[in-house]
Design goal:
The protein is of the alpha+beta class. It has eight helices and eight strands. It has helices at residues 3-24, 56-59, 113-118, 122-143, 149-173, 191-245, 249-256, 274-286; strands at residues 25-28, 32-38, 43-47, 50-53, 62-68, 70-80, 93-104, 176-183. Strands 3-2-5 form a three-stranded antiparallel β-sheet. A three-stranded antiparallel β-sheet has the order 6-7-8, covered by helices on one side. A two-stranded antiparallel ribbon has the order 1-4. A hairpin with a 4-residue loop joins β2 and β3.
Length: 294
Amino acid sequence: MGKVQKIIIAAFVIAALIYIFVRAVVFVGSGVFAFVTDAEGQMLGYLHKGVNIVPQGIISKVKINYIPLNGSSDIDIVIPVPPLELIKSDHYSIKIPVAVNYTLDSERLSLAVQKLYTDSQYMPLQLQKRFHDKITENLKKYLLPYYQYNLLQANLQKELVLAIAHFKESCAKDGILINEVITGTIYIPDYAMYMEGRKFLNELLQQEKVNTLRLNALQEKLKEDEINNAQYLGYLEKISKIISKNKDILKYIYIDKLADNVKVIVTSDKNVPFDLANEIESESSKKDFDNFKK
């Protein structure tokens, strides 16, 4: 093998290695979680910290996606005081603003990583649901069967501590390590606000009852009108058929409406015998009427 051939082969090997290194070798540093997708966004696999070889990158285009392992989310916990949730307003609800600092454990992470990468609200919603479930479970005994405002206010901090502990345990199972939970100014509706809400709810329910009765009456009226209209249309259809078969019936109806004692025979003019017509006219012209005759 000549010297030139060796140089060409060496250059080819070096070029191939460079191509493979550029296309298939991925370095993942600390502080991030990485995964690979194809050109259509389909998941191809996860990458570990350090040097990774992605074989799919040699023959097709791939995308490396990075997710920060450390993050924070601001969430709002809203817990309605029964039965005021029917008003559909958080004005009569317990409100707890919370800031959560967390670290993702890439080895145990069980969340949908693609949603975690593409949807900025995915992690806040996950944290909100978990914390909401825990704190609601702890506060339920102060809300049912009746609202105990004073007892709730006295024990709220203790219940928060317990809820945060359970919240951390729940998140850790799915690879979310909670570093810190900071609560802001908490709003708890007092008895006066609660009674105002009950009064407002009763008014709404009463108005809803009135509206329901009116709606039912209107529906019944519409149904009755629909039946009457159907009957009337049927009547008109029958009259139409009768008139189409005997067109002189309209004359009879008209004359019949003039007086109850009028008796008529309706027939076509061309069918009246000339002699009969002349005779009637002659008799009418000769006959005298006496208005005073009984």
